[in-house]
Each structure stands twice: as C-alpha cells, then as structure tokens.
Amino acid sequence: MNSVIIVSYRMPTVLYIRGWRFFFYANEGNEPIHIHCQKAERECKYWLDTEGFDLEEAYSLNMNNKDKRQVKKIIFENFEYIEKEWNRFQRERKK
Q1: Element (H, E) at 35
Q2: What is the pLDDT of residues 47-70, one digit of tens each?
C-alpha cells in the first residue's frame, strides 16, 4: 500500500507593494533574517543586515536591474517593519 504525505509550509506575506509580494518561508531552519520577493515569474531573496542597515542579494531569477532597484528600494523603505515581522514570525513559529 502506498501512502502520500502532504506537508504544508506557511509562507506569510509581509508586504504587497507595486505587484511585488514580500514573504517568508516557514521551513528554512535557522537562516538569518531575509525576505523573499516575487512578482509573476520574477523572484529573489535578500539577506538583511540589521546592524549595518544593508542588504545582500542571495539570488534573483528573471530580474533585470530595474526590478532589483525597485525591490531594494521597497525593502529599505520597510526595513524596520520587515525586521519586526521576521522576529514576530520566528517567535510564533517556535511555539
């Protein structure tokens, strides 16, 4: 007898701005603070340096320089909010 196990991982959306969805994955273990971004077939992930108020691109798919600038601007404009939501999400995830 075959059995199928379905695992559902929450992907809470933190922001939705200019068609970009900013979200976290719940199944990424103990990775440092970061945000995933997606708009249609375009996708990226940025690490947030909360000490230095900076970003580092982890990866990007199907994005041009204009897309990257737009995403980084949105992240910087909402940096503290993203950090607060990350911390709240991590606390709730560990309950």
Answers
A1: strand 34-39
A2: 999 999 999 999 999 999 999 999
